[in-house]
């Protein structure tokens, strides 16, 4: 799932030039190597599609247990 909120005032490194902050949550599967690859892919998308330079975003990775997610009236 992806949620984008445009036109949100954001200051990054003291300027209001295009910037982004993202959080990626996964039920298992994240590790330093995977995170590095995902970060590179997301950086490319942000730069080419949204004009956000690689140096102007932060991406936070969360690896969580399935029991932390509710779905269909229960948890995974």
UniProtKB/TrEMBL annotation:
Gene3D superfamilies: Macrophage Migration Inhibitory Factor. SUPFAM superfamilies: Tautomerase/MIF. It comes from Platanthera zijinensis. GO terms for molecular function: phenylpyruvate tautomerase activity. This is Macrophage migration inhibitory factor. It comes from the Eukaryota. Belongs to the MIF family. It holds the Pfam family MIF. One of its GO terms (cellular component) is extracellular space.
């Amino acid at each position: 799932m992806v949620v984008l909120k445009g036109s949100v005032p954001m200051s990054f490194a003291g300027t209001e030039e295009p910037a982004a902050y993202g959080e990626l949550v996964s039920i298992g599967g994240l590790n330093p190597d995977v995170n590095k690859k995902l970060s590179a892919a997301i950086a490319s998308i942000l730069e080419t599609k949204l004009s956000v330079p690689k140096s102007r975003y932060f991406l936070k990775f969360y690896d969580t247990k399935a029991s932390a997610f509710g779905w269909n009236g229960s948890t995974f």
